[in-house]
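ok trying again, last paste got cut off:
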Amino acid sequence: MSSDTLFDALVVGGSVAGLSAALMLGRSRRRVLVLDAGSPANRQTPHSHSFFTRDGATPQQLLSIAREQLLPYTTVQLRTATVTHITPDGHYFSLSTEDGQTFRGRKLLLATGIRDEMPALPGFADCWGISVLHCPYCHGYEVHSQPLGVLGNGDMGFHFARMIQHWSADLRVFTNGPSTFTAEQTQQLQAHSVRIIETPLAALEHEAGQLRYLRLTSDEQVPLTALFAHVPFSLPLDFHAQLGCELTENGHLRTNEMGATTVPGVFAAGDLTTPMRQISVASAQGGMTGGALDRELIAADF
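nice, full thing came through this time. structure:
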């Protein structure tokens, strides 16, 4: 079997979690292939925050540093490619790419992240990651004390508004239709001067992704600096289905505390395993999972 196509570990996804795992495995002297399609979920985000020693760096800067620091580990290969199929192949996993290449690995690590599903609301996708934000811990400080909004309803909308309330005294919750807050939730929001707006949204008016105001179906314009929102997500392609991996009730890949999925030999790390979508979490998970994968290789060989 060609050493050019056989690896100790195949890593699908070359962003924070995947590169962190590759670093751990490279330092363990494992032959690793990292395949990445080049479309990270945070590609529109101007800056990343809450990552120790790198607060405020761009996502591109972080990935550039990570790739550069992998160069001394000659057993690690990085390739730009779109993976289309992954199948068990005896004691190995066989991986096919869009350009017709095939690689085999003893272990598999999925770090593809997730695909955010944008609502059909004009301007929303253009502002995503710039002024329409999913995480106050990642981006809340930069917009504190300014007019902010939360797009949400019911228990999730209440939870999100409660998280963000102390970042700004000028906060509105847009339920995009009739409110489903309980009477107690409505009372608590109003007690904290959070205005509830039930009129549906018509569009997000912006300049190069920077929100200027929300336009409602009533034609009212509500000036905002940022809108916080949770959106549905899907897993890229159907690797979990191809392999038979179980999902959680929230739609993430089910893993144990060390990143092992329900399929022997298959590991996962990063956003596709947890709702905690932060670079620091993905980095920690990648390193931990890379170490766990290496220990499985040790157990098999010794």
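cool. The longest helix spans residues 279-301. The mean pLDDT is 93.
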